[in-house]
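Course exercise 7: structure representation. Students receive a sequence record and must write out the corresponding structure in token form. The form below is the worked example handed out in class, using Lipoprotein signal peptidase (178 residues). Read each field label carefully; the graders check that inputs and outputs are placed in the correct fields and that the protein name is recorded exactly as given.

STUDENT ID: A-19
EXERCISE PROTEIN: Lipoprotein signal peptidase
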Amino acid sequence: MALSIAGRPVWGPLSGLGALVAVLGFASDRFHKWWMLNVFDMADRGRYQVTSFFDLVMAWNKGVSYGLFQAETTIGRIALILFALLVVGGLGLWLAKAQLRITAVAIGLVIGGALGNVLDRFVYGAVADFFSFHAFGFYWYIFNVADIWIVMGVGLILLESALPGVFGPVNSEQSDQG
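STUDENT ANSWER:
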């Protein structure tokens, strides 16, 4: 009998794939942040120009995407953490119902990225961001590996929605292997 909460399964045929992607996304984000902070010493190094349009920088984001909803207080930080964990929980329930591999991968990417940023907010009080792209005086927002995974996951979900049927449902043989 499958584990369920309120009659909804918490582990579906593609949950393992999504969980693996989430773990790999989370681990790659953690490793990159550890390396940037402890080996590359980004906090003391200052802006490091990689190309004419890409710099490595050290920025602590106390808000969410694009620096919105800045959480300067402990209560604000806790609220953002709890909200992110609530979203991750909802994504986990969606993952349990996923019938397409692209959906499982997409949800796993978003979960892994979200948890990477949640851990930053819990440990540091803000999210560590490093990548700064710019051209002709315009600077894009500064982001990190976790943000890349979140954007890729959302992009895959949008792609799946825009091209229904292209990726096809998982057949019963594949579901048993999930």
